[in-house]
Amino acid sequence: HYHHAGEREYQCEVGLLSRNILIQGNEKSPPTDVYPLECEYSGNGWDMVPCENTFLTGFGGHTIIIGQAEGRLRGIEFFRMGMTNILGRYPVHFHRSITGQVGEVSDCSVHESYFRAFTVHDTFDLKVSRNTAFDISGHAYYLESGVEERNTLEYNLAAFVHVIDGALVMPSATTSNSMQSDSILVPADHSASGFYISNVHNYVVGNAASGGWA
Prior knowledge:
6-stranded parallel sheet; globular
């Protein structure tokens, strides 16, 4: 008998992608510029990195809750969503919502998204809880402009997050500034991560992230 200690360090995150309610883009949504998958690179300890000018043509669906509209999204699967580098076209998007106190997105999944997963823009007091984001281009959970406060992001999972227009270490002592261009709307997506938290006055509790380039 071999004693194996199944302690916390051996545990892993499990994300369920399927839901009974499905919102999806059509079969023409995926990008067509998918090759090459990797390019050679020398520097910063990497041999291969995601290539520039690839995966830029994804054109999926999007949902948006604006202004006085109330959004309570629970148990929904979002598949083939988001429009790469098109501002405001994300799978789940709360845009300048003034009803955050009664709004929420919980127990949902976003997978194969071409631009983000859950975006909170100029919205306050929103609950984002127990969601799964997998196979996402650009930052997955995204507080967009830095003014968002008192939102709760709790027990969410982000995994398999992809950069946009190639990987780049963002400005430092050894890297010059990256500018907006036709192939990159938000330069920070060169180093996409699971969670983009641009204001510390939010509640971020018990989340998990795997992958990304930050």
